Amino acid sequence: MVLFALMIAMLLAMLDNMIVGTAMPTIVGELGGLEHLSWVVTAYTLATAASTPIWGKLGDMYGRKGVFLTSIVIFLIGSALSGMAQDMGQLIGFRAVQGLGAGGLMVGVMAIIGDLIPPRERGKYQGMMAGVMAVAMIGGPLVGGTITDHLGWRWSFYINLPLGAIALIMVTAVLHLPKKRSQTRIDYVGATLLTVGITALVLITTWGGTEYDWLSSQIIGLGVLGVVALALFVAVERKVGEPVLPLHIFRNGNFSLVTVIGFLVGFVMFGSMTFLPLFQQTVQGASATNSGLLLLPMLLAMMVVSLFAGRVTTRTGKYKIFVVVGGGLITLGLTLLSLMDTDTTRFTSGAYMAVLGAGMGFLMQTTMLIAQNSVEMKDMGVGSSSATLFRTIGGSFGVAILGAIFTHQVQATMVERIGKAGEKMTSGGAQMDPKGLAQLPPMIKDAYMHAVATGTHHVFLWGAVISIAGFAAAWFLKEVPLRGGPATPAETPQTDRIAVAETV
C-alpha cells in the first residue's frame, strides 16, 4: 500500500510536464503572451532543480514523512493556482510553486524507498518504477490532448488534485517512519549559493542558442555567476556543521562514478526523447497526436529490462555487470539511431529504439540503487537528491547542446539544398509544423525532410560519442555488497562483536 501511494506521487511528478506540453498551444491561445511561452516550462524546471537537494536534506534532518507530505501539498497548491491563472504572468509564477513541490516528490519517493527497502531487496520493485515512467511517457500526451479537447486546458492542472489527494491520504494513513528533530540550524547560506549556481546552469542551457547567442554577454555572465556561486558553495559546505549537500559523500568512489553516469544518462535520454518524435513526425509522417505511442518500443524495452535486472540483482546481489552492459547498449542504440535517414522504416527505427531502451532499463534504477547503497542511512535523502539532480542537469545540458547541433545542421542542409530561401525557413528554430510541411512544394518539402534527417543523424552520433564516457566509467565501479543481503564473511566478526557487547 505504501509503494502504491509512492508510485502515485511519482506519477504526479512525471506526468505533469507531459500533459501540460500538449495543452500549451491552447493555453497561449487563451491567455496570450506567446513571447513568454518558454517560461511556463522554464519556471517549473528551475524550481524543481533548485529545490531538489534542499528537499533531500530536510528529509534527512526532520524525517521523510512530514517533508514528503509538505512537498505534495505545495505541488497541489501550485496545480490548483495554475488552473486558475488569468494571464501568462500568473501561470509562470504558479508553475514555479508547482515545480517547488515537484522537487520534493521524486526525491521523497526515492529516499523513502531507500529507508523502507534494503538495496538487496529493492530490485524487485524496479519494474514498478520503470512502469510508472512508461505510463507517464506514453499516456501523458494522449491524456493531455483528450483533457484539453473535452474539458479545457485548466483541467490539465486540476487532474493532479484527485491523484494528489489519494497519495496524500494513503501516505498519511499507511506510511510509518520514525520522527526526527534536528537541533542543527539549516544551512541557509549553502542552500542559497547552491540555488543560484543551479539556476545559472539551467538558464544557460535554456537560453543558450535560442534567446541569446552562446557567446553573448548574458550567457557568459550566467556562466561566471554559476561558477562563482558553486565555488563559494563548496567553500561554505566545508565549514558548516550540517551542510545542505555534504561533500564527504563524493569521497566514495562508487557514488561519484554513478553521479557522472547519471548525468550522462540524463544527457542522452532527454536528448533522445526530444528528437525521436520530431524525426518520426517530420520524416516518417507520423501523427503528432500519437507522439507518446511512437516511443513505445523504447519504453517497453526499458520496463522489461529494468524488471529483469532488478530480479537478478535481488537474487545474486550483483549489479556492476548491468551498468556495464547498459552503457554499452546505450552507445550501440545511439549509433544505430544515427544511421536513420529519409528511407528508414518505422519498424527499423523501432528496433533501434528498443536497443536504446534496453540500455536505459539496465541503468535507470540501478544507478540510483548504487548511489543509495554508497551513502550512510543518515544521508539517504541527500544521496537520492544528488543522483536525481545530476540526472536532471544532464538532461538540461543534453537538450540544449544537442538542440544547438540539430539546429545548425538543419540550417546548413537547407542552405546547401535550396540556398537563402532555406536559411529563412529555418531561422526561427529549425522546426516546422507537420501540417505546414505537407503544404510545401515537393522540392522544399524534400529538402526539409533531408535536413531534419541530417540533424537527427548528428544528434545521435554526438550522443553516442558522449555515452562512451559513461560506458568507460562503469568499468571502474566496485562490486560493494548491497545492504540487506546475507552477511559476508568479512562482516560476520563485526556483527558477532556487536551482539556480544549488547548481551554484556
UniProtKB/TrEMBL annotation:
<feature type="transmembrane region" description="Helical">
    <location>
        <begin position="291"/>
        <end position="309"/>
    </location>
</feature>
<feature type="transmembrane region" description="Helical">
    <location>
        <begin position="214"/>
        <end position="236"/>
    </location>
</feature>
<protein>
    <submittedName>
        <fullName>MFS transporter</fullName>
    </submittedName>
</protein>
<dbReference type="InterPro" id="IPR036259">
    <property type="entry name" value="MFS_trans_sf"/>
</dbReference>
<dbReference type="Pfam" id="PF07690">
    <property type="entry name" value="MFS_1"/>
</dbReference>
<feature type="transmembrane region" description="Helical">
    <location>
        <begin position="125"/>
        <end position="143"/>
    </location>
</feature>
<feature type="transmembrane region" description="Helical">
    <location>
        <begin position="351"/>
        <end position="371"/>
    </location>
</feature>
<keyword id="KW-1003">Cell membrane</keyword>
<feature type="transmembrane region" description="Helical">
    <location>
        <begin position="321"/>
        <end position="339"/>
    </location>
</feature>
<feature type="transmembrane region" description="Helical">
    <location>
        <begin position="257"/>
        <end position="279"/>
    </location>
</feature>
<feature type="transmembrane region" description="Helical">
    <location>
        <begin position="188"/>
        <end position="208"/>
    </location>
</feature>
<keyword id="KW-0813">Transport</keyword>
<dbReference type="InterPro" id="IPR004638">
    <property type="entry name" value="EmrB-like"/>
</dbReference>
<keyword id="KW-1133">Transmembrane helix</keyword>
<feature type="transmembrane region" description="Helical">
    <location>
        <begin position="392"/>
        <end position="410"/>
    </location>
</feature>
<keyword id="KW-0812">Transmembrane</keyword>
<dbReference type="InterPro" id="IPR011701">
    <property type="entry name" value="MFS"/>
</dbReference>
<keyword id="KW-0472">Membrane</keyword>
<feature type="transmembrane region" description="Helical">
    <location>
        <begin position="459"/>
        <end position="477"/>
    </location>
</feature>
<feature type="transmembrane region" description="Helical">
    <location>
        <begin position="67"/>
        <end position="86"/>
    </location>
</feature>
<feature type="transmembrane region" description="Helical">
    <location>
        <begin position="92"/>
        <end position="113"/>
    </location>
</feature>
<feature type="transmembrane region" description="Helical">
    <location>
        <begin position="37"/>
        <end position="55"/>
    </location>
</feature>
<feature type="transmembrane region" description="Helical">
    <location>
        <begin position="155"/>
        <end position="176"/>
    </location>
</feature>
<feature type="domain" description="Major facilitator superfamily (MFS) profile">
    <location>
        <begin position="2"/>
        <end position="482"/>
    </location>
</feature>
<dbReference type="InterPro" id="IPR020846">
    <property type="entry name" value="MFS_dom"/>
</dbReference>
